Amino acid sequence: MSETDPDRAAELRRKLIRNHQEVPRELFERAPLYESRVAGVSDGTLARKLGCGIDTVPPGKQSCPYHFHHTQEEMFIILAGEGTLRVAGERLPVKAGDVIFIPCGPDYPHHLLNTSAADLTYLSISTQERPEVCEYPDSDKIGVFSSKGSAFLQRRDAGLDYWDGEP
């Protein structure tokens, strides 16, 4: 085994390793239903095809609206607490230790709800294909998300005809 160059080791650690317990969290909130303390665990790493975030959702709240992805697959790892996975029109109980796999496509709209009396904490891992299209069945919205972080959201009934504005 060779000696470790401390500078190189520190640089590799910065690019490749994150401790999900140490990543600073931000409050993401829209009363009365949505509240979560979130952090992008993979932000600033060399990850390009996988992304990882961490969410802590207080009792009675949810982190995001019911939605499905056209290109991204997701995996959720429940680290602490209990809750409900709303998926494909059903409600399934989830608890610490559960690993949830969500394929892309309209058959699997989903979101996690904290239906317990304690915080629900989970890792959100996803493929990072861009552009991404998400649909929100409860509100009849479509969102398009680019690689530059910009987004466009629109209700289906507000859409334009293909030829609108063309000569």
Describe the protein's architecture and organization:
Residues 56-125 form the Cupin type-2 domain. It holds the Pfam family Cupin_2. Keywords: Metal-binding. This is Cupin domain-containing protein. This protein has a six-stranded antiparallel β-sheet with strand order 1-2-3-10-5-8, with no helix packed on it. It has a four-stranded antiparallel β-sheet with strand order 4-11-12-13, with no helix packed on it. The protein has a three-stranded antiparallel β-sheet with strand order 7-6-9, with no helix packed on it. By secondary structure, it is mainly beta. Helices cover 7% and strands 43% of the residues. The mean pLDDT is 94. The chain is globular, with a radius of gyration of 19 Å. It has one helix at 6-16, and strands at 26-30, 34-40, 50-57, 68-69, 74-80, 82-87, 90-95, 99-102, 110-113, 120-127, 132-136, 141-145, 151-155. It has one helix and 13 strands; from the N terminus they run H-E-E-E-E-E-E-E-E-E-E-E-E-E.
Uncertain segments:
none
Estimate the helix proportion, in percent. Answer: under 10%
What structural class should be given to the helix and strand makeup?
Answer: mainly beta
**pLDDT averaged over residues:** 94
Spatial strand sequence of the major β-sheet? 1-2-3-10-5-8
Shape: globular
Largest sheet: 6 strands, antiparallel
Gyration radius from CA atoms, angstroms: 19 Å
Assembly type of the chains comes to single chain
Order of helical and strand elements: HEEEEEEEEEEEEE
Q: What is the percentage of strand-forming residues?
A: 35-45%
Number of helical elements: 1
Number-wise, the strands total 13
Distance between the termini: 70 Å
